[in-house]
Amino acid sequence: MSAEAHKNSKSDSALISFIQSAWKFLASLKLAIVLMLMLVGLSLIGTFVIQIPAEYASAPQKYSWWLENIARTQTGVWYPLLRLLGFFNIFHSPWFILTGLLLVLNIIVCSLNRLKRVSARLSLHQSIPAPGYFHDSQNSRVFLAMRSIDTLVSFLNQRGYRTAAVTAGQETYLSAVKNRFSPLGAFMVHGSLILYILGFVIGHYWGFDNSSFAVAEGQTREVGYNTSLSLKLEAFQAEYYSDGSPKDFRSQVSLMQNQTMVKNGLVRVNHPLKYQGVRFYQSYYGPAVMLQVNDNGQPLFSGMVALDKILSKHPYTRPSGKLILPDQYYSIHLLAPATNLFDPVLQKEQLAVEVFRNNQTPELESAVITLNNPSTVGDLEITYSGSGHFSGFLVNADPGTGFIWTASVFLLIGMAMLFFFPRRQLRAALLLNSAGGLDLYLRWENKVADFRDD
Fold first, then answer.
1. At how many degrees (to 10) do helices 3-26 and 94-122 cross?
2. Which of 29, 146, 384, 393 lies most in the core, judged by the most C-beta atoms within 10 Å?
């Protein structure tokens, strides 16, 4: 053998050895347990460590702002380590994805290892068993002086067994199987686990969930997340019981894609608006104010602004909101009178206003403005001209839902096949005895009681 051939042979052997080692590693049941425990641990981290909202994770600038202003504040000295490990977005972290993919590979390899053995169990082929087969088991019985196996075959067929027989001279060997496809239930359960993991990963990577999507009456807001969708709140209505508690609330909306109307409808609790996998659920509502903003006589904004946040400063609870004018680099913060107590600072028809430049502190100027009284705040003229409502929606899209539903069906079918329709196998033989007659021998795979039940 030449040196080059020897070198190639060693290289091939090393590759085969590596593949065998990797296959053995991925086929390990211990690995499956470790990976599942790791997924549980990572999920617990996602439960106890603050996670970035989807609307901030989708934009790098918002992501950075959230990390510095929210995550750092709440985690203190642990912030650098948690950020380095990606624990603020754990379900999109390499740790979670790699663990999930390894578990998928582990399940696939374990299933492939079982495939040959299971496929053999699905066959009805009957071969002549080894000598002593019918004498070496406690699940065996012998019935003397039987001349035919036909009665047994008819009995088994009536009870759902499928039979196959082979003869050798005067002797006959029979195999009978009931629910022979039941072992496939294990593969369906394994497949459901794979689909669950894929559905979860796909949903978290390519889906989104925004639970605080507020739109004021008459206003349009972009959904974002690369959907090219915008939602306009045409009108909002609320009904109340005699004690003042809400009875029903609903939103008449129009949905646009790339500035073109694609759908409109009424959104109510438990009656979402759906379009191309995106769902808009009615979630909450609150007050909004009508503002007119001018800069040196040039109109910058005219419309409703949602007061969709709450500023709590004991003992007062005040609705607050924000109007961002990105083209003019202005951010206007609004604060309304307290809703729970008489407000000694703001009267009924007043708003506290702070104007920021580039959304930075300190503010350019702050003031208290009154209904229908134009006021100059910094470089802006702001007019508070009325009140209305905003509607809050939960907006989500989950492309992994189909995988989750399919996985659930697979899991239910697989569990039913394994536990409610277990595989049962019986083997029989008509064997010559010492007197030259035939004796019927039975041996069944399951407990004796299982066969007697039939």
1. 90
2. 393
